[in-house]
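Entry 14: structure prediction run for Uroporphyrinogen-III decarboxylase. Input pasted below.
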Amino acid sequence: MENLQTLYNERLTRIKDTIALKKTDRVPVCILNDMFAPKHMNVKMSDYVSDPVLSNKTILDSAIELGTDAIQFASFDPKLLSLLWLSKVKLPGVDLPENNLWQVEEEELMTVEDYDIIINKGWNYFFFDFLENKLDNLLDKVTPALSYAPQGRQNVIDAGIVPLSGDFVTSPIEMICGARSMRKFMKDMYKIPDKVQAAFDVAMIDIIENTKKAFETKPLGAWVGGWRAASEFLNPKLWERFVWPYIKKLTEVTIEAGVIPIFHMDSNWERDLSYFRELPKGKCIFYPDGSTNIYKIKEALGDHMCINGDVPASLLTLGSEEEVYNYSVKLIKEIGSEGFMLGQGCDIPFNAKVENVKAMISAATGK
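Run finished. Output tokens:
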């Protein structure tokens, strides 16, 4: 146990120094293996998604076998995705074959009239009613995963690995866009922009308080996610009105709570990377999915913010060990030895080759 505690402390120091843009002994590795771990550990997907204890063990066993410094999440329940996007999720063994991946099923569950409910009665009134009546009493269904999360993180720590993210923070656009459906919400921003913004502003009051309460469990970091809010989906005026002010405020709340903001940014954010320089230097992580060119992130933010990435899913799945290793070494050399954590873009695919994932990690660890 003492050796594992020493290993954990070494890895944690390496990661914290990297986030602070300090020079370290080597580039740390942080992976997200929530969909890869079940196949890697030969665990049935339907069992994995229905049992938080098994989920934690599967992710942890995979991480130990791979030899990574850190993982994003200690356990995973796909029903938690419904809290991000207020959309239903199809589950393996329930709606899908038992070894299939989960699927988000987006449809219009929120009406235009619901904006007024948010404005007049507050976000929490709308949100908890929505979870109960539109998402089949979702809160009860995710309570086991949420309750086990602190113990799951401790299990990872006890194994000498850093659980980097212990929560997620979501801006109004992600949840409301998912609830309305993307097509309907995009029209709302043009047809009733003032009402949309009024609902966002009211929602933020409760979202901020909910975030502060969630951080009482003291996670090391938290995702401040962006998916539908990416620059490639919105013109600059809409992005500056409906995206950035809310991301910035939630980031400030996260930092004030002593939690590391992890910008898990899917899709292309290249146009607006400079905005992230408004945030405190050496306090955050930019974690793209491969759509945002990592070299442009380096150019815009390399002296201001840690970057975590960005070995492509396609390379981990279809490439050779040598190709993955060479690409990973190239990232380490060209993105830099300071302020860079090696990892995959977004998530390790469920069908990635184990030898390729190990090749990525060995490029940094030398093992």
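Notes: The chain is about 50% helix and 10% strand. Will compare against the previous run tomorrow.
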